[in-house]
Design a protein that fits this description.
Layout: H1 26-36, H2 40-57, E1 79-82, H3 83-107, H4 112-115, H5 121-125, E2 149-156, E3 162-168, H6 175-188, H7 190-195, H8 202-213, E4 221-225, H9 234-244, E5 247-249, E6 254-257, E7 260-265, E8 268-277, H10 281-284, H11 300-305, E9 310-312, H12 329-337, E10 348-350, H13 354-362, E11 368-371, E12 374-379, H14 386-398, E13 403-406, E14 413-418, E15 421-435, E16 441-443, E17 448-452, E18 466-473, H15 501-533, H16 538-542, H17 545-558, H18 569-574, H19 577-585, H20 593-605, H21 613-631, H22 642-668, H23 674-698, H24 706-715, H25 719-726, H26 732-741, H27 749-762, E19 768-769, E20 772-773, H28 774-787, H29 791-794, H30 805-827, H31 846-851
Parallel strand pairs: 1-18, 4-5, 4-8, 8-9
Antiparallel strand pairs: 2-3, 2-15, 6-7, 7-8, 10-13, 11-12, 11-13, 14-15, 15-16, 15-17, 17-18, 19-20
């Protein structure tokens, strides 16, 4: 790579790096020299560092698909602007922002433009972003700029002029990715970043915080309203939430009462004054006229209209993204601002106007067509045969007000690294702008630069394959800047200490999923170790009580019946490979190890904004190690091959170490606040349940077998404790005492129940039922049941013994799941459906049911 010259742009496309005479532009010269001086190995090392930092910053870039969405690969070469060129560009875009703000005020206020005919009423009403419910005379009041945030996609024409491709007035998609790109690339190219005097971006985000703080009263808070963790852009939301310090919420976390918005928390409703939204208008409120019922926050639009909440950007801003407006935007600019439009769009014709429609259809090959309500659905006459085009024309003429025609825009090109090879790629630049105190806008000094592989990029058609950080080179040296600045006074709080109910439920289930994974890992690992350590023929080893007890316990604890239980169990125990392979690698089967890993990863992804960097890295390692497990080529009779058993155990050992690391980080590095309490409670309840299920299944037959007792001790990591304490042969009473009744053994049943009781005592504001704490009552009942148990009575063969082992363990299972149900009823009952592992869950017993609180249709 050393000394390689950058490739030039294809003919008839603007080259970002070169003048028309072929010389390299001044702002690119030093950077390209810096990049070309690296060897291929050095370039590859920097790309690996980019990938490593991306993984360290988030669990997955596309939680739903488990991989990177389009455009999330960061190019090592940034896009570069000198300060003068950048200022000229953003000055024109800031004018568009001011224009759209004035247009918003008129559309939802006096509607002077419609009455005067400057803005055709049909153009306005045909767009789904127009919300009639928000029209008010107060919207015309210029007390505050009604469009705090604005972003714009731009491409450079062949002549070098920047043209506006698409605007985003509802919320600035890509702002979080832009921030992440800057943080990552400044660390990968530190010397270049410092020596080229790159302008910092922290001031822009500080301005955003100030804009939000101006709307938040002392007894309320700001929240970020986002889609759920399955949304492709969830990572961006979580990243911004961490950086800005605002609580990230989903629609189900909010409720509207009497025109005011509240956040559902574990201690009740907390007022919300400002909503920083990252959702489209048509997904925010199902009660708005013309919107699909379901999802969103019912009543949010009405609350915003009545002044009960400030939504940033304001609801209804989607009407400003109507592409048809580009056909009259120069006239709107003269009418509203008295200025000439500085940054235009490609030639745009609105088909609702008969003359423009005729022009577009007569010269159809020079345009792309799409609906103003579905701009992603672009079709080009150049790619259609005559019959297909006629069919399209019929659709256009049936409802012409909903369609536009726009001239295709070829993109400019800039150098990019593909592996270690420098290539030239087409680009689109997204800029971000925020309202200032003077009625204008400030611009983020940089942006999200999207790259495309297509040599000719038509309007809206080319998928982005990678992205660049955008560097604006200052004329003078840049002072260090950070979002964390000292303040003269106490800042308005951005996030309350009250834990949202949904987050409490998520961390509770993260604890349960973690323990479920630990249990499955230990069961499968102990089983495979027993097979590997037994020198006898495999058929003899599989027929022993010790091995069969482990196999029964594995099926019972994982809930993967029939497995090694029920009819045909002995035959499956004699030939266990198919079932063991399924437990190891079948992620589609609930209860398997692969499925448990998948569930844990999904749960952790939903809590991205709550996890520390170390925890994120551990979860990433878990995901990587799961990939190793999935790719193990195990034969159908793998339990008979010591080499395959050893390879599998090596992966399981690594997984177990990582789960232990995750548990340790969660205990030692996380503040012991409410979310930590719910995580610990989930862990204790699940581990107690797993112990009860496992011991009950293992000791359901041949309970006095020495190998079976030893396997149980190994399974619960208690062999050394037993030996150091009793120094004698195995005795089932002592095994039961240690594993079930010993409150100082952290792997015992009694320890889990006592710890759960202690955590429950610390939970905030538990509801009282008839003078008694229902949840506390269940915890006391569970602890008392264990403390009153006697090993001799547990192991008695008397059928009338009420304290027999199986009855005792079944009662414990009942109580643990009853506690989980009670927690759901007290803290999580706003959710549509409670979660459960399902297959090994027992019905609630009468004693437990009597302790449950009555269900109430209330705030939670």
């Amino acid at each position: 790579m050393t000394g390689a010259a950058p490739q030039t742009a294809p003919p008839a496309h603007y080259d970002e790096t070169r003048h028309t005479d072929g010389g390299v532009r001044r702002e690119w010269t030093a950077l390209l020299s810096h990049i070309t001086a690296y060897s291929p190995d050095q370039l590859a090392s920097r790309q690996r560092e980019i990938d490593r930092q991306f993984r360290a910053n988030g669990l997955a870039y596309d939680p739903a698909a488990g991989g990177n969405p389009s455009g999330r690969a960061l190019d090592t070469i940034p896009m570069v602007f000198d300060e003068a060129a950048w200022n000229a560009l953003v000055h024109g875009v800031q004018q568009r922002a001011r224009l759209k703000a004035a247009l918003f005020r008129d559309i939802y206020g006096a509607q002077r433009l419609v009455s005067e005919g400057v803005l055709p009423a049909e153009m306005l009403y045909a767009h789904r972003g127009y919300l009639r419910d928000l029209v008010s005379s107060e919207a015309s009041t210029p007390a505050m700029l009604p469009l705090p945030l604005f972003s714009c996609d731009l491409r450079r024409s062949v002549t070098g002029d920047w043209l506006a491709l698409r605007e985003r007035s509802q919320y600035p998609t890509g702002l979080g990715y832009t921030l992440e790109n800057r943080m990552v690339l400044s660390r990968v190219l530190p010397s270049a970043f410092k020596s080229y005097r790159v302008r910092r971006v922290a001031a822009f985000f500080r301005r955003l915080q100030q804009t939000v703080a101006a709307q938040v009263s002392s007894n309320a808070q700001c929240v970020m309203l986002c889609h759920a963790s399955t949304h492709p852009d969830y990572f961006e939301y979580a990243w911004l939430s961490k950086y800005l310090g605002y609580a990230m919420v989903e629609p189900a976390d909010l409720t509207v009462r009497d025109g005011l918005v509240f956040l559902k928390t574990i201690t009740g409703l907390q007022p919300v004054r400002t909503v920083l939204r990252f959702m489209d208008d048509d997904t925010v409120d199902p009660l708005v006229e013309g919107k699909v019922v379901g999802g969103g926050v019912p009543g949010l639009v009405d609350a915003a209209r009545r002044g009960g909440v400030t939504v940033i950007n304001p609801l209804g801003a989607g009407v400003l993204d109507n592409t048809a407006l580009e056909s009259i935007l120069p006239a709107l600019c003269e009418a509203l601002l008295g200025e000439t439009l500085a940054v235009a769009a490609p030639r745009t014709l609105w088909l609702g106007d008969a003359a423009q429609r005729a022009t577009a259809l007569n010269d159809a090959s020079g345009f792309d067509f799409w609906s103003i309500n579905a701009p992603e659905d672009v079709f080009s006459p150049r790619a259609l045969d005559e019959a297909a085009w006629r069919a399209r024309v019929a659709v256009l003429e049936n409802n012409p007000a909903e369609y536009v025609a726009q001239a295709p825009l070829a993109a400019s090109f800039a150098p990019s690294l593909l592996g270690t090879e420098m290539v030239s790629r087409a680009l689109t630049l997204r800029t971000f702008h925020i309202a200032d105190d003077a009625g204008g806008y400030e611009s983020l000094p940089g942006g999200w630069c999207l790259l495309h592989d297509s040599p000719t990029v038509e309007t809206g058609t080319a998928p982005d394959v990678a992205c660049k950080d955008t560097w604006v080179l200052a004329a003078d040296f840049i002072d260090e800047d950070t979002l964390l600045q000292p303040r003269d006074s106490e800042p308005v709080r951005a996030e309350t200490g009250d834990l949202p109910s949904r987050l409490a439920e998520n961390v509770f289930w993260l604890g349960r999923y973690s323990e479920r994974l630990d249990s499955v890992l230990r069961l499968v690992r102990t089983t495979l170790n027993a097979l590997l350590d037994d020198d006898r023929p495999r058929d003899i080893s599989l027929s022993t009580p010790g091995m069969q007890g482990l196999l029964r316990a594995t099926t019972a604890a994982t809930g993967t019946a029939p497995g090694f239980l029920g009819r045909g169990a002995k035959r499956r125990m004699a030939q266990p490979d198919r079932e063991l392979l399924s437990l190891l690698q079948d992620a589609t089967r609930v209860g398997t190890l692969a499925n448990a890993l998948q569930q844990l990863h999904s749960s952790a992804t939903a809590l991205n904004d709550r996890l520390s960097g170390e925890q994120v890295r551990v979860f990433n390692r878990l995901r990587d190690t799961q990939g190793l497990l999935d790719t193990l080529a195990l034969p159908a009779d793998f339990s008979s091959h010591d080499e395959h058993l050893g390879n599998t155990l090596h992966v399981l050992d690594e997984l177990l170490l990582l789960t232990a690391a995750s548990t340790g980080l969660g205990h030692e590095n996380i503040t012991h606040s409410d979310d930590w309490l719910f995580t610990q409670l989930g862990r204790r309840i699940e581990r107690a349940n797993q112990i009860a299920v496992t011991v009950a299944a293992a000791l359901s037959s041949d309970r006095y077998n020495a190998r079976l007792m030893e396997n149980l001790l190994r399974l619960f990591d208690s062999v050394m404790t037993y030996r150091s304490r009793y120094r004698s042969d195995l005795d089932l009473r002592r095994v039961v005492q240690l594993l079930l009744l010993d409150e100082i053994n952290p792997r015992s049943l009694a320890y889990q129940l006592a710890a759960a009781h202690d955590v429950i005592e610390r939970l905030p504001e538990r509801r009282a039922v008839a003078g008694h704490d229902a949840l506390g009552k269940l915890a006391i009942a569970a602890v008392s049941q264990v403390r009153l148990a006697d090993p001799n009575r547990l192991l008695s063969d008397d059928r009338d013994n009420w304290q027999s082992l199986q009855k005792f363990l079944k009662g414990v299972q009942d109580l643990t799941e009853s506690m989980a149900d009670a927690i759901n009823g007290v803290y999580f009952s706003h959710t549509e459906a409670s979660r459960s592992f399902g297959l090994n869950r027992l019905p609630i017993g009468n004693m437990a049911r009597s302790a449950l609180p009555p269900q109430r249709d209330d705030a939670r």
